[in-house]
User: What shape does this take?
Amino acid sequence: MNKKIFFPPLSEQMDLIKRGTSEIIPEEELVQKLEKSLKENKPLNIKLGCDPTRPDLHLGHSVVLRKLAQFQQLGHQAILIIGDFTGMIGDPSGRNSSRPPLSFDEARENGKSYFEQASKILDRYKTKIVHNSEWLRKMTFEDVIRLASKYTIARMLERDDFTKRYKGGIPISMHEVLYPLAQAMDSVAIQSDVELGGTDQKFNLLVGRDIQREFGMAPQVILTMPLLVGTDGVEKMSKSLDNYIGINESPKEIYGKTLSMPDDLIYLYYVLTTDATNQELRLIQQELADEKVNPRNIKRSLARKLVEMYHSSQDAFDAEIEFDNIFVKKGLPDEIEEFNIDTSMKELDILELIVTVGFAPSKGEARRLVAQGGVTIDGEKIVDIKEVIKLDKSKILKVGKRKFIKLICN
Assistant: This one.
């Protein structure tokens, strides 16, 4: 006899599921699946696939993970598919250097790191973890041919990037065509009821619906989430663009980066990256519309909330105190990393010094930082890229808004 599961009413489930969602395809099928789930007292299988090409997660990744966690809260089965097999393909187009092909062992290792970080959002004890190598590695070439026969090239070319490249005469490799089919087989293997993904994954998720039908299964419902804009307020959050907030970053980094983003992102971040209630969200909207309220105060609340979510309340308090000390009171951090200067070095030009302590990967990047006015020595701004720094006593080097280091000169 199945254990009784206490699901919230349908309307309550749909309210939470629709929060922050871009599309539900089709919504009426989701309602039917939820009604059946309530009637049969059986949780839905909610699928989220991830290719662990990079083991470090940021708030952009958290958006869809949080939606998966919401389904967990509603009593459904969260299934996280680690793409250790598809991860070996990397970026199918070969054009994204941030998604290089991985070895099987690398993909597995990254998958462990991914889940450890995702567990800050998901209930690790209620999340089912599977690796798609379990079924994809077992497929024979005959199996692949049969799978490929279930989809047409015409349908594949409906994918936006395929269409543009085909019309532009840019080659499309066969493994790129097979990639959505491999992802679709994940849905077949776990009998997915709902698959989650970003709006950029819509085509691949829809292929999963079609392939499930071909295998005689009820097709999954697609739920897409918006791509989170980074702290620059322009581009999608990405580590390569340095506009990200990592969920494993220190409290002071999370707090400081949140304070650096444009005011017009405050409400979006509350909706997509926190568990603020609908009542809280309405209040935030009212405050943002009130000219008497300084948006910075709301942003500070958001920064504290994000630090609390991934660290603790005490960490959030300490991060705010340190931020105020550095940026409001123009003080220094309580703890500053030290860098011992080689006794043979009597002086260094500022660009070489910045590279030496690891605050820039190259002199070109160091030159940009100086030109932007973001470099100081003992509080004095460096304006000349050719400035020579005498290393005759200990000094505080500051680069950007949050990088400090104490130069120990012996």
In short: The mean pLDDT is 87. The domain at 251-328 is CATH 1.10.240.10 (Tyrosyl-Transfer RNA Synthetase). The chain has three domains: 10-225, 251-328, 338-409.
